[in-house]
Specification:
The protein has about 350 residues and is of the alpha/beta class. The chain has seven helices and 19 strands. It has three domains: about 100 residues, Elongation Factor Tu (Ef-tu), domain 3 (Beta Barrel), CATH 2.40.30; about 130 residues, Rossmann fold, CATH 3.40.50.80; about 100 residues, Ubiquitin-like (UB roll), CATH 3.10.20. The protein has a six-stranded antiparallel β-sheet with strand order 4-3-6-1-2-5, covered by helices on one side. Strands 9-8-7-10-11 form a five-stranded parallel β-sheet, sandwiched between helices. The protein has a five-stranded mixed β-sheet with strand order 14-13-19-15-17.
């Protein structure tokens, strides 16, 4: 199971007035644990005013880079963790960091030629940048198109880096900025990324006959809009990769999952939780708190970050019994079929349940 490790901050770069990039030095003993795949994230633990906070931030560097890894943090209005990091973090400080996780990725093959298409908004560019750099360096026959939404030019995270990559990769990389306060003559590049705008962008810039993979990362409404446009265009679900960077606020994109539920269960359950080779029995009710919260209250050091079904830090496997998840934005259909759940959303639906965190 993933644990937090102290990592030294090697670099802090101001990307915009509200966003920084953070570089980490990884000691030799931890390099295997901190190997990552393009599109993954790490979870950081810090203390703000005496309270422990955990936040997940996507990796913006490529796994092909050899100088540690970098993440990006954008200050969120009222955000305690992001504000402390953006305003106070300096090189040489140490942060508690969990090993990389996440499914916002796809396998690459140097022999293939594909067209990768990404929609991002705000700090949603962070995992997209990792994917973009890795794709273009790994698959020389592939190309990449990025549609990137922001408020204005000054809020574009990695603006200079994206421009450098366009020069480096030429016609293989297309970057199109859509600004909500923009004043471009072409209205397609002004405003927010709506369903109609996404449809028009696809029609104008993604009409070739190459095999395609789509990545969408940003606020929920943008994700919903782009997903609707892709569905209308007939794109197969397996070719669409989606990552929310905040907890959902609507139910439009909600992925409800009932794992092995055969009948209503309203009684008390015995939930056996396996963690680090040990077992602890929890007594739970069907309509009470989810497994994660009950385990924390019982003093178990279970992994978690968002508690909102967005990350998969609290992922575990159901090896016995029946459960149900309220929401799932992080696990793939294949993982759900294999019995994996997000324990922050999981409730027992049988008298006995066994959940194993060690089978991650």
């Amino acid at each position: 199971m993933a644990r937090f490790h102290p990592l030294v901050v090697s670099q802090v770069t101001q990307e915009t007035p509200d966003a920084i990039a953070i570089g980490f030095s990884v000691p030799p003993a931890l390099r295997d644990e901190f190997r990552f795949t393009h599109g993954q994230y790490v979870t950081i633990k810090l203390t703000v005013n005496g309270e422990e906070l955990r936040r997940s931030y996507s990796i913006c560097s490529s796994p092909l880079d050899t100088d540690g890894f970098r993440i990006a943090v954008k200050r969120v209005p009222g955000g305690r963790a992001s504000t402390q990091l953006v305003e106070k973090l300096k090189a040489g400080m140490t942060l508690e960091v969990m090993a990389p996780m996440g499914n916002f990725t796809t396998a690459l093959d140097p022999a293939r030629s594909r067209h990768f298409v990404a929609f991002a908004a705000g700090s949603g560019i962070t995992p997209i940048l990792s994917i973009l750099k890795t794709v273009l360096r790994t698959e020389p026959g592939s190309r990449f198109t990025l549609f990137y939404g922001n408020t204005d030019m000054d809020r574009i995270i990695f603006r200079d880096r994206l421009a450098e990559l366009q020069v480096q990769f030429g016609a293989r990389l297309g970057v199109y900025h859509i600004l909500s306060k923009g004043r471009e003559q072409d209205a397609l590049f002004n405003g927010r990324i709506t369903v109609e705008k996404a449809r028009q962008l696809l029609a104008r810039f993604v009409s070739d006959g190459m095999d395609k993979e789509f990545f969408v990362c940003g606020p929920e409404q943008m994700m919903v809009n782009v997903s609707e446009a892709l569905e209308a265009a007939g794109v197969e679900k397996k070719r669409i990769h989606i990552e929310l960077f905040t907890s959902p606020v609507t139910t439009e994109a909600k992925r409800e999952v009932a794992h092995a539920t055969t009948a209503a269960f309203t009684g008390q359950a015995e939930v056996v939780v396996r963690l680090d080779g040990r077992e602890q029995v929890l007594r739970m009710t069907a309509k009470g708190d989810p497994v994660l919260d009950v385990a924390i209250d019982a003093g178990m050091d279970v992994p978690y970050a968002c508690k909102g079904a967005v990350c998969c830090t609290c992922k575990a496997r159901v090896v016995e019994g029946q459960v149900e998840m309220d929401m799932n934005y992080a696990l793939t259909d294949e993982e759900v079929a294999q019995g994996f759940v997000l324990t922050c959303q999981t409730h027992p639906r049988s008298a006995r349940v066994v959940i194993d965190y060690d089978q991650h």
